[in-house]
Design brief:
The chain is α+β, with helices and mostly antiparallel strands and 237 residues long. It is built from six helices and 13 strands. The protein is globular, with a radius of gyration of 17 Å.
Length: 237
């Protein structure tokens, strides 16, 4: 597989063309950002840890029947993926109250949500990734009602699979965001990444935060927490 020119440089990953029109290479960098990119730092080993963590999770989801962008690991910080036409909507599933939900509604952090909640946000850093609803998505042409229904179905299935996986590792899956895209055959496929950068994970007993909130809140030992989560899951680093 020949790696060609850079197509896109995000806050933490770079996307490259390949000699296959249906495949891309994602490069996981050590860049770590918060507050819509207003704070960026380099954290040693982060690209490697997130790349291998993501590969492990995506393969677990594939085994559960959830279509993902993942193809294969190429290097410590590179992965081959399917090329998707990304839908600019973030799907957020919350099992416990945290983050923006606490700020918006004034509820207690850690409150168990019964049932879980499902939310949509427009993927737009300049606008602060605003909270939107299904009508907005369809009215503005960001996606169709059928695509949204499939995205929700897959998001909830991801929650079922990963909640158990993390529970078995002594962790609470507090919340997470997913992004989806359309593959060349028209199917909806889970894209981007699943790592401690895009979810909240707490130790079941101590409620210690094991995710990017350690960076956002200045708690320290960010990558050490990521590596502990990976170790509990059996991710080969």
């Amino acid at each position: 597989m020949e790696k060609r020119e850079e197509l896109y440089r995000g806050k933490a990953k770079s996307v490259y063309k390949t000699d296959d029109a249906d495949r891309l290479i994602l490069l996981f960098r050590n860049d770590t950002s918060a507050f819509d990119g207003k704070r960026i730092e380099q954290l040693d080993r982060k690209g490697m840890v997130n790349n291998k963590f993501n590969a492990f999770i995506m393969q677990k989801l594939e085994a559960a029947g959830i279509p993902t962008q993942f193809d294969k690991l190429l290097a410590d910080n590179e992965v081959l993926v399917k090329k998707l036409d990304m839908i600019p909507v973030e799907c957020v599933v919350r099992n416990y109250a945290a983050g923006s939900l606490v700020k918006r509604l004034g509820v207690e952090e850690g409150l168990k949500l019964n049932p879980y909640t499902f939310e949509l946000f427009l993927k737009d850093d300049a606008k602060g990734d605003p909270f939107i609803n299904e009508s907005h998505v369809v009215a503005f042409g960001w996606g169709t009602a059928e695509q949204l229904a499939r995205m929700k179905e897959l998001s909830l299935k991801v929650n079922d699979v990963l909640s158990k996986l993390f529970d078995d590792a002594g962790l609470l899956l507090v919340d997470f965001k997913l992004e989806f895209g359309v593959f060349s055959d028209g199917s909806i496929v889970l894209g981007d990444e699943f790592s401690p950068d895009g979810c909240r994970l707490w130790d079941k007993d101590t409620k210690k935060k094991m995710d990017k909130d350690r960076f956002r809140q200045g708690l320290g030992d960010v990558i050490e927490a990521y590596e502990e989560v990976a170790h509990r899951l059996g991710v080969p680093l």
